[in-house]
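Can't paste images in this forum, so I'm doing it all in text. The chain is below; anyone willing to post the predicted structure tokens underneath?
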Amino acid sequence: MITSSIKELMSNYENVGPGDVFSGIIGADRMKQFLMIDLIERGILCVPSPLSQIISGSKVVQALFLNKWMIPHTRAILRRRDLIDAVSWYNRHKIGLVVTKEDRMHCGFGIRKWDSIETLYSFMSMADTSYPFILQPLIENFKDIRVIVAGDYIESYTRYNPDNFRMNMAAGGSSSPFALDEDKKKFCTAVMERGKFPFAHIDIMVMGDNNCYLSEIALSGGLKGARINREELDGKKQAITDKIIKDNVI
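Text version of the structure:
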């Protein structure tokens, strides 16, 4: 049995089992992880993979699982203890300006710049409800690249805003095509393989010719600035999904 909507899955939840398929996205609510674990334990094939869905839905999870591809000294701050440890670490490494990224906040609205980690700690000492979040050194003079990958289809373009350090299109940036070389394609492929992403929207930061860092990855995202339209991309994603199901279901 193949179930393709969360409503249908929940209405028939106790009857699905080994050999069944759930094809769709489980919403980013607090029950998501528990549902994913239960479906895996019961032998139900989920497409996209449960790991990719969990990673896609949380910037903090990305900082935990995909840290090796991110800016050096990137940290997932889950509680005050993590932040006070980061204060010592950042000061030891002479890191001044820092950036925080609020979990599950999109379109650049959760990205904030701080003049020092001490300023951040002073603020956070009065605002425990802002945990968890990502902490990173502020990086300047880089190219912000959006990469769209769906099977053999790969498209990439720059996003630039001279008036805002948030480069994404929602913050008023402009775009232009960007030629992705083989090293950067391999970089994106490695990130996708680690997170078991069948397709992805990947934001990378390119410094100079070779330094490449992961900013964020998601199963879906905005297409402003892209050549491909939503209908075409959804068709490619559906073809990938159908193939995964066909290859894994007898």
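The first strand starts at residue 2 and ends at 3. The chain has a mean pLDDT of 89.
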